[in-house]
Design a protein that fits this description.
membrane, transmembrane, transmembrane transporter activity, glycoprotein, 2 domains, 0% strand, 75% helix, 16 helices
């Protein structure tokens, strides 16, 4: 893609930045919509269908400006997904059940990244140049082909919250039991959105105390996004550049599953988080020093995948 579109300098970084800008702008409004006005079982799949179409449209981009615009709107639409699913899981599960389920959900992105690496390598070798399309263009097309049917299934499969569910697979007794469990965990039915409710959210000290450590955690694992650029600069092949990072995704998946199970069993959230972040700190120090043997840099990149966000 870099060669076909003539990308240079920080333009690839800006592709991530435009996605993040859209994501930041969309996060709060999309949550207000899906938790107050439109059922998550309608809103999330609808957004996914739309962003999947935009991802497929990226295959036709002729310049980086088009990619910037598409990435922004993909981020804007995708902003509903992670916090929306997290809210749904939080509505159904209690404190001793939630962490490992959040770990499983969060690491679907790691599994998807692994699959994407193998898919990109296969498309580059098998379809690169077919019908006048490069391997990266085929990847965008196949991403849409895969995700659109899943999004359509979401219209039927997403259960909404216990108090509002209309899922076809729940019986009346299931719904009543879900409501009882939710209420026993302090969950209540969605309330109308008011200025007082908005003020209550932004005046809650927990929100502001949470922001700084979360930013630190998010930043700690940001180096993983540049792993493939490092591999390419070191002269690794296209296939290796796509496949090697999948080992880091595998590490992330394993650590998430183990940590999620440990936290739910022991409720030692702080201790577990500190241990994981100490490991990631070692990774960041090595990458900051940089002038170390190649094997040590690879170790640092793989270790940085141990962060759980």
């Amino acid at each position: 893609m870099k060669e076909d579109l003539g990308l240079y300098g920080n333009e690839r970084n800006w592709l991530n930045s435009y996605f993040n800008i859209g994501y930041l702008i969309g996060t709060v409004p999309t949550q207000m919509v899906q938790l107050k006005y439109v059922r998550p079982s309608i809103w999330i799949p609808l957004c996914e269908v739309l962003w999947s179409v935009l991802v497929m449209a990226m295959a036709s981009a002729k310049n980086v400006e088009t990619l910037y615009a598409l990435r922004f709107f993909v981020g804007l639409l995708e902003a509903c997904a992670f916090p929306g699913y997290a809210a749904l899981l939080g509505g159904w599960y209690g404190p001793r059940e939630l962490t490992k389920r959040m770990a499983i959900f969060e690491q679907t992105s790691g599994i998807a990244s692994m699959f994407s690496g193998y898919l990109q390598a296969a498309l580059y070798k098998g379809l690169g140049g077919r019908h006048g399309l490069a391997g990266w263009q085929w990847l965008f097309i196949f991403d849409g082909i895969i995700s659109i049917p899943i999004a359509i299934w979401g219209f039927f499969a997403i259960p909404d919250l216990p108090h509002t569910t209309r899922a076809f697979y729940w019986t009346k007794d299931d719904r009543e039991y879900g409501i009882q469990r939710a209420e026993s965990n302090g969950r209540v039915a969605p309330q109308p959105l008011t200025l007082q409710a908005i003020k209550g959210v932004f005046s809650n000290w927990r929100l502001w105390v949470f922001i700084l450590p979360y930013l630190m955690v998010a930043q700690a694992g940001s180096g993983t996004g540049y792993f493939n650029l490092y591999l390419k600069a070191e002269g690794y092949s296209v296939v290796q550049t796509n496949v090697l990072p999948t080992a880091g995704n595998a590490i992330s998946v394993v650590v998430a599953f183990l940590a999620g199970g440990i936290v739910d069993a022991t409720q030692a959230r702080l201790t577990t988080s500190v241990i994981i972040q100490l490991a990631v700190a070692v990774s960041n120090i090595l990458l900051a020093v940089w002038y170390i043997p190649n094997g040590a840099r690879l170790f640092a990149y793989f270790l940085s995948h141990g962060v759980i966000i």
